[in-house]
Amino acid sequence: MKILVPVKRVIDYNVKIRVKTDQSDVDLNNVKMALNPFCEIAVEEAVRLKEAGIASEVIVVSIGTNLVQEQIRTALALGADRGIHINTDQKLDSIHVARLLSKVIETEQPTLTILGKQSIDADNNQTAQMLAAITHYSQGTFASKVTVEADKVLVTREIDAGLQTIALTLPAIISTDLRLNEPRYASLPNIMKAKRKPIETLEASSLNVDLAPTFELLSVSAPAQRKGGVKLGSVAELVDKLKNEAKVI
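Request: output the structure for the sequence above.
Response:
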């Protein structure tokens, strides 16, 4: 079984986000970038399936400038076998990403494609669903457990009433939830080995995909700063403020 894992380069979750002074976008200058945490979970699950003897090869794919090869190398150090870099400096929507990934699926024919359910920057939670619609593959979203049985994959996901397990016919596309696994840390020997693993580069413009923008970014603004709290002397004073200032009672 061949597993494809799309991964994304995002701002490290420990970094405090800054907005450009002209509010045109988020400021990325001198900002630490990292592998999207949900993508790390997807890589970990694929590597575990390989270690269990279920998968034979794990391929990671990322879209962007040459800088995304840093995140591909990170995934290779975590246990993936080879990488694919779709080179473009264009700002892409979720539908563009899904269309480009569908081209990789056409070529590679993976049995299973595992994605993070969302990226921590755009926070859209769209790409896996769009990719399943384009490829007409079975889809299981928000997986908290994945089990492969013969020609099917069982995906357990949390719903309001508890847990739901669905059986998907392979090939299939799965998006991962936080509880699926805990990603490992890359060891130094594996980081060194990752430098020798192959990364194929494809030009996005050569994949015959419509990448025309579907929306326009007007401005980006930081959230309003929270005001400091006030210590009150009595319950009566609290009720008065709730009634006359907050006007919630």
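Residues 37-51 form the longest helix (15 residues).
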